[in-house]
């Protein structure tokens, strides 16, 4: 039933305007990255640009170091996502299924990496790797990224488990299924979209991470570090804009996909269905 209060329309308009102002504030700088990726001049940031060209895209794609950095970022993100899916799912299942002393403290420790500044996590990991005499390789980057990717998967999985009916698991056990069969045929299908969404978000977070990578990469360069290094060369500004545009586009796809995968479930939960 629509409210007859005349103030509702003004409140709706005010919220609508505030929402769009927030969207513009957050995304307008990103649009300028796209704009200056096609700037005809190599070091000018005048607005509007004096002209447009596609040559910077060809120049970027023609650089071997760009492709090496891009491929390293993709490999690190895939491995970090894989580790996060396994550990995050197991942690969510354990925290949902069992009650034990210190459960709240362990939950805090699981969630802590996403709350800490990246520089704190990076310094801690570097110190741990140094003390363990572990050389900085692809694996140290992937493990560093997995520390905060686990949180994303864990949050998605635990939220879905809390919305699932415990009666399904009990019914599976009553029908003679063992733990693995229950997990495979009951729990995993219920978690499928949540895990897929969590994995996509984890990939996006890992792909554009720079601070943790800086402390765990050694001489290797992921794409964000490559962009940061190229910023020191003024004549390469359009190239860095093209690379930044590619990072935005690659991370945008899993974020939007994760939103649409979980939207129906969130709407159903919110409506009490």
Question: Would you give an account of this structure?
Answer:
The structure is a single chain. The chain is an all-alpha fold. 77% of the residues lie in helices and 0% in strands. It is globular and about 70 Å long. The model is unreliable at 266-273 (pLDDT under 50).
Q: Layout of helices and strands, plus pairs?
A:
Elements: H1 7-36, H2 55-61, H3 64-97, H4 103-115, H5 118-131, H6 138-163, H7 166-174, H8 179-207, H9 211-216, H10 223-230, H11 237-271
Strand content: under 5%
Order of helices and strands: HHHHHHHHHHH
- What's the end-to-end separation, in Å? 20 Å
The helix content, as a percent range, equals over 70%
Principal-axis shape: globular
Output the number of helix runs. Answer: 11
The gyration radius over C-alpha positions equals 23 Å
Structural class call reads mainly alpha
Average pLDDT confidence is 77
Overall strand count: 0
Biggest sheet: strands, sense, closure?
none
* Unreliable parts: 266-273
Entry keywords:
single chain, 273 residues, mainly alpha, 11 helices, 77% helix, globular, disordered C terminus
Brief summary of the model shown:
The protein is mostly helical. It has helices spanning 7-36, 55-61, 64-97, 103-115, 118-131, 138-163, 166-174, 179-207, 211-216, 223-230, 237-271. The two termini are 20 Å apart.
């Amino acid at each position: 039933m629509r409210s007859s209060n005349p103030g509702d329309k003004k409140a709706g308009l005010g919220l609508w305007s505030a929402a769009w102002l927030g969207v513009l504030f957050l995304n307008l700088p990103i649009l300028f990255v796209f704009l200056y990726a096609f700037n005809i001049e190599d070091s000018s940031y005048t607005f509007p640009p004096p002209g447009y060209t596609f040559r910077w895209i060809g120049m970027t794609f023609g650089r071997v170091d760009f492709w090496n950095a891009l491929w390293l970022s993709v490999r690190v993100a895939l491995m970090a996502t894989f580790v996060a899916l396994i550990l995050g799912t197991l942690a969510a299942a354990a925290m949902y299924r069992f009650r034990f002393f210190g459960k709240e403290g362990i939950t805090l420790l699981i969630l802590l990496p996403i709350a800490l500044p990246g520089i704190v996590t990076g310094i801690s990991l570097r110190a741990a790797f140094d003390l363990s005499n572990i050389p900085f390789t692809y694996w140290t980057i992937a493990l560093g990224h997995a520390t905060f990717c686990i949180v994303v998967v864990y949050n998605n999985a635990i939220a879905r488990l809390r919305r699932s009916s415990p009666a399904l698991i009990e019914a599976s056990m009553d029908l003679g299924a063992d733990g693995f069969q229950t997990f495979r045929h009951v729990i995993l299908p219920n978690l499928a979209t949540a895990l897929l969404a969590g994995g996509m978000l984890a990939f996006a977070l890992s792909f554009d991470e720079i601070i943790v990578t800086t402390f765990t990469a050694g001489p290797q360069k992921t794409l964000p570090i490559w962009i940061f290094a190229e910023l020191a060369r003024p004549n390469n500004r359009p190239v860095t804009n093209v690379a930044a545009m590619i990072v935005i586009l690659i991370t945008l796809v899993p974020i939007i996909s994760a939103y649409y995968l979980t939207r129906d479930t969130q709407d159903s939960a919110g409506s009490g269905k």
